[in-house]
Design brief:
alpha/beta, five-stranded mixed beta sheet, globular
Length: 291
Amino acid sequence: MHAANRPRRGNTTMRLGHWQRGVAAIAAIVGLVASLAACGGSANSQSDKTITLGATPGPYAELFKKGVQPILEKEGYTVQYKNFNDPQAADDATERGLVDLTVTQHRAYMQAFNKAKDAHLVDAGVLPSLSTGLYSDKQHSLKNVKSGDLVLVPQDSSNLSRALVLLSDIGWISLNPKTDIAKLTPNDIVKNPHNLNIKLVDRASVPRNLPDADWGVICGQPAYNAKVDQKLLVAKEHFRPEFLNRIVIKDTSRDEAWVKAVANAYHSKEFKHFLETDPSRSYWYVPEDNA
């Protein structure tokens, strides 16, 4: 046989090798895409039985760990925690799918976050909540308010609204009834008969700055964290739905089984018994949905 007519085996082998490497490369790319898609989902996607809570320091995470986690574990769930210094960082992580849920904010705060960040967080159930209150280390009665008194209030939008509603409820100011209750600012004060000096500060700083003011509106979690003496409490808020704490998740998680499991745990007889016997019970307002 002439050399020109011999089969070109070497070239066939080379083509086969190229084809095998091409298939391997495609498989690797498919695997990478699948891996990235999994990373883009919720934290729970790593396991249907793993729930990751975005936790900030304070009573809400403690309540979840002591009262809710044991119930979930009995149902076969594993609970993990990722810690954050503030609720906004935890919300960012929820939006990005790095954690599954948070339990440290009310609906008004969540809605303000969604608007500011173009986010997609939703609430999945109401929770026991800590009350915002008016405190003073100088006065013990609302009747002692004086003209020009300095009142510290939290500056973040949702808790500022909450503070102004409290001051309105006790009769110290009047608010524009046409303004959304969750979007109030000092500009919505239409009557201030005591000429109060209302100063906006970081909500966590109100407890430590209380000695320098006449009154301070302190949210429940900062009061709990700072162990503010409850003897200094002069008035409590009347809870409105906007200011009750919520289970907060990303909208794509609405139909997940673990969401229902968490909500059911908070509403269970076991959790109710836990809360009734826990030393912190006096701090909590329990809405009827949790009764």
